[in-house]
Structure formats: structure tokens, C-alpha cells
Task: structure prediction
Amino acid sequence: MQISPHIGSQLVDLCSALLLLTCFAIVAQRRLSACVDLFALQSAFLALTAALVAFLTGNHHIYIAAALTGVIKVIIIPRVLKKVIERLNVKRELVMNVNVPAGLLICGALVMLAFFITQPIIPLGFLLTRDSLAIALAIVLIGFFTMIARQKAVTQLVGFLVMENGLFLGATAATYGMPLIVELGVFFDVLIAALIAGIYTNRLQDAFDSVDTTHLTVLKE
Amino acid sequence: MIEVLVLLIAPLLAGGLSLIVHRSALLHAINLTSMSLLVAAEIMITRTVLRDGPFTALGQLVYLDALSTFILFIIGAVGLACSLYMRSYMDDQVARGVIAPTRLNLFFFLFHMFLLAMVIATVANSVGVQWVAIEATTLATTFLIAFWRRRESLEAGWKYLILCSVGISLALFGVVLTYYSSLHVLGDVSEALNVTQLLPVADQLNPHVLKLAFIFILVGYGTKVGLVPMHSWLPDAYTEAPAPVVAMLAGVLEIVAVYAILRMRIIVDHAVPPAFTGGLLALLGFASFVTAAFFILIQHNYKRLFAYSSIEHMGIAMIGFGVGGPLGAFGGLFHLLNHAFAKSMAFFAAGNIHRRFHTVEIGQVQGLAIAQPWTAMALMVAGLALSALPPFASFISEVQIVTALAVQGVPGQWLTNSGGMVTFALSDQFSSLSLTGLFLLCSVLAFSGMLYRITGMVWGTPPDGIVQGEAWSLGHLPIIALAAALVGFGFFLPQPIRQLLEEATRIILIH
Result:
């Protein structure tokens, strides 16, 4: 089956846009477990985007990355996070530094900033998926913002994972994937980081009786 | 090629063995053997590099030149010192019940993984693999920092994990951008991130993309170096982690992160005028230097004092690299070496003091010269070296950097380009003069703050209830060796080290 490059490019853009949309949903969501579900959904879109790029370009090593995304980010990490949340017994994210409407507005501004930053370099790309670079940067910035705006250790972790998704989208879409050895290494690091953060959340819960990172103020000048 | 394999396999094997061995003496034996093998391999690599120049190994995966060999030398020297120090430190911690004996093998496993990740980050040819290894150092060290499992250490470990992971993610975006630009020139090949492939074509890479990539990488790895304003995890982590871990963090990890920035800079400088990267490095360097100098003045906790002094010295080295020129770059590299030695020694001393006095408050530590004469000597030497006094080698490297700054000034193009943001870009001469003045003022501040605190700890009479006298142990050996090196390098730099430094300077300066 042959798809014209133009339609292929549009399809990749559509998938990237869906990824960005889930970012906004995560920012707007107050319930912890729903945040994790949304992250799993976003990762599923990411795997789909990667598979699409692999199909359109015939670069088979991207299929491996897509499959790994499916296994690690759609299944394993969300499961680990769900376990952590169950044990913590916190259902709602009550504490937010920024309320939801303001958060969404800031995210909108971040998307504009991302397009502004990448504008000079996007026309340089010769690949059909080059527009996704701006969306990828936007997702990275929104993940960054989520980490600042939320105070629960679990949501900070979700913010970190969203950042990682954005980076992966950038690597897949703008450059047809990094060299395989680098990609495998990145997956390994993300998996270990998520597991370590999960262990930490448990220990913080035991030590502070809370995973609210505002309690982490013992160390100060 | 066997030496490169030893370099990678020794820590890997030692880490694996540490997991199944439970006797403390055996764990230390494994650690010392692996460390000695590492150092032996490094000596052989140094000889090869100095004789035949740069080489690749393991099918293009490993690239070694004078710069990476120099960093390997620091890893080996400080790592061996740490291993010797750990012998008495860890046994004491177990004996006092601070660390459960069953957790000792976990400590060694993480320590070896940390070492392995740093070695990979140094020898990797691909900047992508280097990124993976630097992120792996974060993962390996976060539990080492939180190893005491107190509330404060958990907090420090979590802060470190989150801040460094986020910072490092930004660096990954920089790597992606580098790949994006190299694809145009090299095509879609898996070697397109290799330094050996990038360097010959670096002048054809797109300057806009590379500028953006460098900013992301500088911010990302700068978090790991602890440059202001990304430094907030550093004082907490250095206060809470066990002494040998901090010595490795301060003495080696920071330097590996600086190396990653320098590697990228060499590539970017081919396509972009060096004033761009130099200006950015000098800007972050000054921000770190000035901020840390003031924080040193107000510290009452000796571990935090040394932590801020780390930020200060990394700032000074960054100024050296930013100003550039043969003198600035040489001074920067030399300063990295001196700082690694002095700071690991300072934290060895801090570990000894903490074990004896059970406090980190400077005001409660007195009469160290009577209570712990060896440690007092170590603290004094490290403190004087960190204040950059003659006859210590750090005095020479700092003089080199400030001379380069006074003569050349901070690369001007970037300053004038950013227009209204920087107001002191009146004339080149004025800016270099005022910046030199600022540099000297901050040196004096840091010097007086450091010396005042340390002399207060060393002299006087020890408080009641503190055991007096210090028995000789293996942990004193590295302290004496490091002290000798710090004084000795000021007068006479051994030929291989001098040659390594000179060739590494040449690598940084090739434009």
C-alpha cells in the first residue's frame, strides 16, 4: 500500500496534535489516577505516531521503538504508578500552585513559545514530519510546567514522563529516530527512573506521612 | 584495546560481585582490585594517546583523545583515593550501626555502577550514548545520596533525582537537535551522533540549530555541574550524602558533566563563532562564582560551605573556558584537576569530623588540631587550596584564568549582541577591567569566608566529651597523597600530566 507523502505528513501531524491535546487534558485533570490514565493514552498515541513514521519511511528500527513505547510507557509504567497511588490512598490532587484555567492559559502560551523558538529551524528540515518538532518542544515545556505547578510526587513524575514523551516525539518525528543504541539506552533510563521514583514515593510516604512535596522543606538556607 | 575493555568490565564485574558477596572485607578487596585495574588501564591508555594520538575502539563506540584521557585520569585518581578512604569509613559506619551490614553490598553495587556510568560518559564516541550514561549517573547516585534514609536525606535524594532528571531531559533535546542538524550532512546513519563523524563536517552543520542545541545542552548538563541558577539541589545533596559519595560527586561527577559540555562546545564552535559559546559559559561562570562567593560568607554548616565552594570553583573553571585562549583553557582544565583533588580531600576531612563530633555545625567544632591532628591537617590543606593560596596548584590555575580574563576579556560579540540585557558592554577594555575587578573581589570574599570558618574549627580546645587523638588508618593514606599532589603540582607538573593538559587545551581551542 502506498500513501502519498502529503497525506502521510498530515497523518503524522494529526497524531502529534493528539499528543499535545492529551497534555492539556493532564494539566486540566485533578484526579491522580486519571492523570496516569491520560499519560498511558498519550503514550499510546506516541507509539502510533512512531509506527506511522516507521511505515511511511520504511525505517524498520522505529518499529522497535514503537513497540518498546507500547510495552514500557503504556503498560508497565502506568501499572507501577497505579500501584503506588493505591498504596498511598490519595485520590485527589487538591494542592495546585496554579488553578486549572490559569494553567491552561499558560500552556497555550508555552505552545506559542515553542512554535516561535523552532520557527527559524523548521524550514531547514527536509523530512515530511518536520512540523512535529514544534509540537515536541511544546510538549516538553508543558511537562516542565506540570512539574512546577503540581506538588504531589506522583504528578511531578507524570510531568517528567510527559517531558520524556515530548523528547521522544521530537526524536522520532524530526529525525526518524535516534540511533538504535541511544534509543534503547533512553528507554532503559526512563524505566529505571520511573521505578526509582516509585520507590522514593513509598519512602517519602513512610518518612513524612505524605507525598506532598511542600513538606520537603527541612533543607533550607 | 584490552585496556579499554578492562576500563569497562572492571566496574561492571565488581558491581555484579558486590551483589552476591556479603563479607565486608571481601567487598573492600573487590573494590580496591577493580579500582587498581581501572587506574592501570588508564595509565596504559594515557601512554597510547600521548604516543599515537586519538584512537577509536570497540567498533567506533569508544573514542579516546587527550581531553577524555585527562578526565579519565581524574576519575581514576579520585576514585582510588575514595576506595582507600571507604575502607575505614564504611567499617566505622557499620560498627556504629548507622548503616546495616546487610545494606553494605547495595552501597558497593551502586558505587560501581556510578563509576561505570562515568567511565562510559567519558569514553563514549556518540553524544547520545554519553547522554544515556550521564542520566545513568543520576539514577545510580540518588540512592547513594539518600543512603542514610533519614528524612533530610530522602528529601535531598528526591530533589536531586527530579532536578537532575529534568535538567538532563533538556540536554536530550539538545542532542536531538544536534542529530537533526547532522542528518542533513551525514544522512541517516547510526554514526551521525559520533564525535569522530561530526567533527570533520562540523563547519557544514546549520548554525541556528547548533546554537539552540548548545543552549539546551548547557542548561541540561549545567544542572549536573551545579551552575547557578540550576544549583539548588547541590548543597542539600552534599550535606546529606555519605562522605565518600560526596567526594565522588564533587570530585568527579561535576567534572564529567563539564567534559560533556566541552565536547559539545568543540563541535558547535566549528559552525558558530566561538564568542557565542564562550560568552554563554562565562556568563554562567560569573553567575555561579558571584552567588557562591556570597553564600560562602554566611554558611554555618561545614558541608554546605564546601558545597558552595564547589559551585564557586566550577564557576571559575567555566570563566576560564569561556574566556578561552591558550591560557584560559589550560587554566580551566588545570583548575578542574586541582578542584577535584582539593574537594575530595575536604570531604574526606568533613567525613572524619562528622564521625567524631556528630554535628555539621561549624560553631560546635573546635580544637580539631588536638582531637584529630591528621584530619586537621587535611582540612587546613584543603581549605587553603580551595582559597587558592600559594603554594598550592589551585593558586596557579586561578592566576592563569584571571590573567586570561584581564588580557582578553569576555568574548564581546555575544555581549554586544544581547544589547540592552547587559549594560556593561560599554567598551571592551572597560568590561574586561570591571569583570577582572569583580573576579578578584569575589575571590577575596570566598577566601576570607573559607579561611575564617576553617581556622575556627582547627584551633582552640575541643569540647568536653570528644575523644582526643587519632589512630593511623588506611583512610589517611589518600589524604596525604592528595595533599602532596596539591602542593607538588604547584611547583612541578609531571611530564605526562603536563603533556595531557597541553594537548587537551589544543583540542578545546581548535576552531
